[in-house]
C-alpha cells in the first residue's frame, strides 16, 4: 500500500450512553459523522464517490438520498463482525489506490437501544452451526471470550491483577479525555469488588456499550496534501487471519497452540511486512478492547511481548501514557472512553498522528489500530505522519 | 456452597441441516456422537459438507463414552437478558471427550460446587432432555 493514501477527514458524534442517542435515528448519527468528516477535510459531501463498511455496514442507496451524493463508484464492506473496523479503512485505501474511487468514506456506527451488544450472540437467528454452542447459555461475547481468558490463565499463570492493569490504565487515560464516558478514577480495590459477570471477567473487564458514529475520509496522499487537514498516511492495512482460527469463539476447535490468543498473529505478520515495520517501530497502539484479556492477547500476537507474557507486560506499566514504552488506547479505549465498534480507535489514531489528541503523545510517528478479535476476518491498520 | 445449575435452556432453539441432524438424532436417543471423515478420519465438528483436510464429503459417526476433561470454563453469575435470572450461576465449558482426540465440545458443568471447578477436571456426560425432546449434554463430576 506504500503511503499512497491518507485519511484527510475525521468526523464523529457524541459518545452517548446506551440508548441515550434517541430520538436521533441511526442513519442520522451516521450522516452526522459523515458530514463532519467531509467538513473537516474540506470536501463537499456530494463528492463522496465511495463507501467502505464492516459488520454489515449501511445502505449506500439511502446514504446517497440522504446526503445528495452525485455518483458512487465503490461500495463494499468487509465480511464478519467487529473484526473489520481497522481493515475497513484499508478497504477504502485499496479503492483509492486502485483508482476505483477518489473520495471514500469509511463509517462505523452503533445504536444499542433496541439490541445491546452485550447480548448480541443471543440475537442471532438459530442456525445449525450455532446450535453446537447456543444451548450452553453463551448468550453474549463476554461469555465466549471468558473461555479463552480462563485458558490463558491456566497456560501462562495470567491473573485477574493482569486484567485489572489494563482496566485501571485505560481508566487513567480516559480521565484526560473530555469525551470519555467514564469520568471517575478506578482503583484495584474497586476492580476486585466488582461483580464477576462471566468469571474470570468482572464488570470492568467488559467494554462500554455506547451509541455513536465515527467516519473518516480516505483519499490519495497527494490530494490530501491540498485539503484542509494535515494528511494522516495509511502505512499499511490488512484483514484476514489464519484459517485455523475460523469461527473461533463460535467454534472452540482452534488448535491448542492458538486457542488462548486473539487470532491476530497472521494479520500482524502481514501488516508489518506491508509497512516494512516491526513492533519496535510502533509508537502507540489503539488495541480493540472489548475485553481486557483480549488486549493482553493482542499485545502478544502483535509481538510487543512473547506469548504468555502479556500479563506481565501490562502490569509493568508499558501500556501507560505515563512513561510506558507503548501507550495503549490513549483516549481510554472502549473500556472507558467510548465504544463504536472499533471506530473510536481510528478516531484516536488520527488525532494522535495529527498532533491534536487530548492525551497527545509527544513525538509519536506511528500508531497501530486493531479490529476486534472475533470470527475471521480480523484486521489492523498502521497510520503515520506525512 | 454454591452449586452450578443448568443453563437457561429455554433461550435455545434448535436448528439443524442435513449435515448436523444425525448428531441431534443420536442425542435424542442419549448417544453422544461426533463426525469424522469417512475417508481420512479427520475430525469434523460441527459437521460440514466437506472434510477440511481431504474434501471428501462422507461422514463416519464416532460414538463417545461421554468421559471427558475440562479444557476451559466460565461461571456466569449475572443475568444480562430476561429469562436468565433463575438459572444463575451456570457454567459454560469447553470439554475434550477422552475417546475423541482432537475434538472439543461446548457444554455445561452442572451439579458441582463452584470451588471445585478447574481446567483439567475429569467429568462424565449426563443427558438432559428438553420438553421438546432435544437431547443436551451436561457434564458432572466423575
| CATH fold annotation of chain A | Peroxisomal Thiolase, Chain A, domain 1
The domain count of chain A comes to: 1
Order of helices and strands of chain B: HEEEEEEEE
Helicity of chain B, as a percent range? under 10%
Q: How helix-rich are the residues of chain A, as a percent range?
A: 25-40%
CATH class of chain A: Alpha Beta
Low-confidence stretches of chain B: none
Alpha plus pi helix count of chain A: 15
Query: Kindly state the mean pLDDT of chain A as a whole number?
Result: 96
Low-confidence stretches of chain A: none
Q: Note the run of SSEs of chain A as H and E.
A: EEHEHEHEHHHHHEEEHEHHEHHHHEE
Quote the beta fraction of chain A.
15-25%
Structural class of the helices, strands and pairings of chain B?
mainly beta
- Largest interface here, residues on each chain? A-B, 39 and 41 residues
Name the structural class of chain A.
alpha+beta
The largest pleated sheet of chain B is described as: 5 strands, antiparallel
- What is the tally of helical segments of chain B? 1
Radius of gyration of chain A: 19 Å
The multimeric state of the shown protein is heterodimer
Structural features, described:
The complex is a heterodimer of chains A (386) and B (142). Chain A has 386 residues and is an alpha+beta fold. Chain A is built from 15 helices and twelve strands. Chain A has helices at 26-41, 60-67, 85-97, 120-123, 131-134, 141-156, 160-174, 188-193, 221-224, 256-259, 265-275, 292-301, 310-315, 333-336, 343-354; strands at 5-12, 16-17, 50-53, 74-77, 104-110, 196-199, 201-202, 210-220, 232-240, 284-286, 366-370, 378-384. In chain A, strands 1, 2, 3, 4, 5, 8, 9, 10, 11 and 12 form a ten-stranded mixed sheet that branches. In chain A, α7 packs across α12 (292-301). Chain A is globular, with a radius of gyration of 19 Å. The model of chain A has no long low-confidence stretch (mean pLDDT 96). With 142 residues, chain B is mainly beta. Chain B has one helix at 21-28, and strands at 32-37, 59-64, 67-73, 75-76, 91-97, 105-109, 122-129, 135-141. In chain B, the strands form two sheets. Chain B has a five-stranded antiparallel sheet with strand order 6-5-3-7-8. In chain B, strands 1-2 form a two-stranded antiparallel ribbon. In chain B, β5 (91-97) and β6 (105-109) form a beta hairpin. The model of chain B has no long low-confidence stretch (mean pLDDT 96). Chains A and B meet through α5, α6 and β6 of A and β3, β4, β5 and β6 of B.
Amino acid at each position: 500500500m506504500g503511503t499512497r493514501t491518507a485519511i484527510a477527514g475525521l468526523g464523529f458524534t457524541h459518545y452517548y450512553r446506551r440508548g441515550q442517542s434517541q430520538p436521533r435515528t441511526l442513519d442520522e448519527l451516521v450522516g452526522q459523522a459523515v458530514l463532519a468528516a467531509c467538513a473537516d477535510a474540506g470536501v463537499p459531501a456530494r463528492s463522496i464517490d465511495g463507501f467502505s463498511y464492516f459488520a454489515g455496514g449501511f445502505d449506500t442507496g439511502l446514504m446517497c438520498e440522504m446526503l445528495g451524493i452525485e455518483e458512487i463508484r465503490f461500495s463494499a464492506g468487509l465480511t464478519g463482525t467487529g473484526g473489520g473496523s481497522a481493515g475497513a479503512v484499508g478497504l477504502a485505501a485499496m479503492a483509492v489506490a486502485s483508482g476505483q474511487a477518489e473520495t471514500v468514506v469509511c463509517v462505523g456506527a452503533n445504536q444499542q437501544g433496541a439490541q445491546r451488544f452485550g447480548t448480541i450472540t443471543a440475537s442471532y437467528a438459530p442456525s445449525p452451526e450455532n446450535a453446537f454452542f447456543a444451548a450452553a447459555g453463551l448468550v453474549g461475547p463476554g461469555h465466549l471470550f471468558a473461555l479463552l481468558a480462563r485458558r490463558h490463565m491456566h497456560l501462562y499463570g495470567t491473573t485477574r491483577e493482569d486484567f485489572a492493569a489494563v482496566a485501571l490504565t485505560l481508566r487513567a487515560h480516559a480521565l484526560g479525555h473530555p469525551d470519555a464516558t467514564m469520568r471517575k478514577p478506578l482503583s484495584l480495590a474497586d476492580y476486585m469488588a466488582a461483580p464477576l459477570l462471566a468469571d474470570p471477567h468482572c464488570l470492568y473487564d467488559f467494554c462500554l456499550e455506547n451509541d455513536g458514529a465515527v467516519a473518516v475520509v480516505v483519499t490519495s496522499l497527494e490530494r490530501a496534501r491540498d485539503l484542509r487537514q494535515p494528511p494522516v498516511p495509511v502505512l499499511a492495512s490488512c484483514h484476514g487471519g489464519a484459517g485455523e482460527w475460523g469461527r473461533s469463539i463460535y467454534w472452540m476447535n482452534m488448535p491448542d497452540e492458538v486457542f488462548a490468543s486473539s487470532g491476530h498473529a497472521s494479520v500482524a505478520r502481514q501488516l508489518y511486512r506491508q509497512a516494512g515495520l516491526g513492533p519496535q517501530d510502533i509508537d502507540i497502539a489503539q488495541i480493540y478492547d472489548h475485553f481486557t484479556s483480549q488486549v493482553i492477547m493482542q499485545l502478544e500476537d502483535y509481538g510487543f511481548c512473547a506469548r504468555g507474557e502479556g500479563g506481565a507486560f501490562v502490569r509493568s506499566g508499558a501500556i501507560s501514557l505515563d512513561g510506558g514504552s507503548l501507550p495503549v488506547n490513549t483516549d481510554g479505549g472502549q473500556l472507558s472512553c467510548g465504544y463504536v465498534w472499533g471506530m473510536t480507535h481510528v478516531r484516536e489514531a488520527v488525532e494522535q498522528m495529527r498532533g491534536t489528541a487530548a492525551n497527545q503523545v509527544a513525538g509519536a510517528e506511528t500508531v497501530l489500530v486493531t479490529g476486534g478479535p472475533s470470527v475471521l476476518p480480523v484486521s489492523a491498520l498502521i497510520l503515520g505522519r506525512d | 456452597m454454591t452449586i452450578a445449575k443448568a443453563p437457561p435452556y429455554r433461550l435455545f432453539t434448535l436448528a439443524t441441516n442435513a449435515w448436523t441432524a444425525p448428531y441431534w438424532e443420536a442425542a435424542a436417543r442419549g448417544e453422544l456422537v461426533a463426525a469424522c471423515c469417512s475417508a481420512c478420519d479427520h475430525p469434523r465438528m460441527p459437521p460440514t459438507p466437506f472434510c477440511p483436510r481431504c474434501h471428501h464429503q462422507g461422514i463416519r459417526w464416532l460414538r463417545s463414552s461421554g468421559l471427558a476433561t475440562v479444557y476451559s470454563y466460565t461461571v456466569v453469575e449475572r443475568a444480562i437478558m430476561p429469562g436468565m435470572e433463575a438459572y444463575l450461576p451456570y457454567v459454560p465449558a469447553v470439554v475434550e471427550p477422552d475417546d475423541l482426540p482432537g475434538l472439543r465440545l461446548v457444554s455445561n458443568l452442572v451439579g458441582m460446587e463452584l470451588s471445585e471447578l478447574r481446567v483439567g477436571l475429569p467429568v462424565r456426560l449426563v443427558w438432559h432432555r428438553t420438553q421438546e425432546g432435544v437431547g443436551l449434554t451436561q457434564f458432572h463430576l466423575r
